From TrEMBL:
Catalytic activity: L-isoleucine + 2-oxoglutarate = (S)-3-methyl-2-oxopentanoate + L-glutamate; L-leucine + 2-oxoglutarate = 4-methyl-2-oxopentanoate + L-glutamate; L-valine + 2-oxoglutarate = 3-methyl-2-oxobutanoate + L-glutamate
Family statement: Belongs to the class-IV pyridoxal-phosphate-dependent aminotransferase family.
Pathway it works in: Amino-acid biosynthesis; L-valine biosynthesis; L-valine from pyruvate: step 4/4; Amino-acid biosynthesis; L-leucine biosynthesis; L-leucine from 3-methyl-2-oxobutanoate: step 4/4; Amino-acid biosynthesis; L-isoleucine biosynthesis; L-isoleucine from 2-oxobutanoate: step 4/4
Protein name: branched-chain-amino-acid transaminase
Xref: SUPFAM superfamilies: D-aminoacid aminotransferase-like PLP-dependent enzymes
Top EC class of this enzyme: transferase
Length: 275
């Protein structure tokens, strides 16, 4: 049985026991869905990712539980719908029980559902980003899962200068692998590329959507590392930050150095905006 807990406002208290494994160990998953005009977006992709993560973590969570959460949130979304986008957050915990790290053989998951204001719209001209000193380390078994344990991203976020929107975390090849809250899509030598999906922290729902749209247009997204020889070379055509809440935004500068912006990047921004 999955307990669905809906908060009516950011100040609305919800009782979570102190032995909840999501609180104690980060034992769970979460999804953030952009809501516009009263409609959560990319629902199928978010549902699929949460189900895949739950299966890998052996948390008994089914599609019907995800859909029930959206149904219960619908009146709250309707009451707050307007011209401004919202963010619907689904936080899945394994629940209480178990001895230490070892979970109960019969977990009773909790799904916390909350609605928030979306972050401010980002400038059309792009954003400034920096490179974090915190490296990205990936456990192959957890790669791609949007787990509750995001301490690397928390540490990297604390060091973001005020003038920068995002910090990019480096992989084990000296490459730019992922942002603290965004994935990377770049254009090099006329190709769309993204870092290998099995070597990033989060398998982006928005990136997969964009990949399908580009595939339909005959421009498939390939996988490769974003190494200095690429983004510092003459064949580099630009970099985008992508996630389900912001869509896609141009990177204007990287560590103070201006990056190129080919006309192709505007196409991606439009695809992410017009779902």
């Amino acid at each position: 049985m999955v307990s669905i807990l809906l908060t009516n406002s950011p100040d609305d208290p919800v009782l979570i026991p102190g032995d909840d494994r999501g609180l104690a160990y980060g034992d769970g998953l979460f999804e953030t869905l952009r809501v516009r005009n009263g409609r959560p977006e990319l629902v199928e992709g978010h549902r699929s990712r949460m189900l895949a993560g739950a299966a890998r973590l052996s948390i008994p969570f089914r599609a019907r539980h995800f859909d029930q959460a959206l149904e219960q949130a619908a009146p709250l979304i309707a009451s707050r719908s307007g011209s401004h986008p919202l963010v619907l957050k689904l936080l899945l915990s394994r629940g209480s029980g178990g001895r230490g790290y070892q979970p109960s053989p019969n977990p009773q998951p909790r799904l916390l559902v909350s609605l928030h204001e979306a972050p401010p719209t980002l400038p059309e001209g792009g954003v400034d980003v920096c490179v974090s000193g915190i490296p990205l380390t990936i456990n192959p078994y957890l790669a791609g899962l949007k787990t509750l344990n995001r301490l690397e991203q928390v540490l990297a976020s604390t060091g973001i200068p005020q003038h920068c929107y995002e910090a990019l975390m480096m992989g084990d090849r000296g490459d730019l692998r992922e942002g603290t809250k965004t994935c990377l899509l770049f254009r090099w030598r006329g190709q769309w590329l993204t870092p290998p999906r099995h070597e990033v922290a989060v398998d982006s729902v928005m990136l997969r959507h964009l990949g399908r749209r580009l595939e339909e247009a005959g421009e498939p997204v390939m996988e490769d590392y974003l190494t200095p020889d690429k983004y510092q070379g003459n064949d580099f055509e630009g970099l985008l930050l992508v996630n389900s809440v912001i869509g896609a935004v141009l990177v204007k500068t990287l560590e103070g150095e201006r990056l190129p912006h080919s006309e192709h990047l505007a196409t991606i921004v439009s695809l992410a905006e017009n779902l």
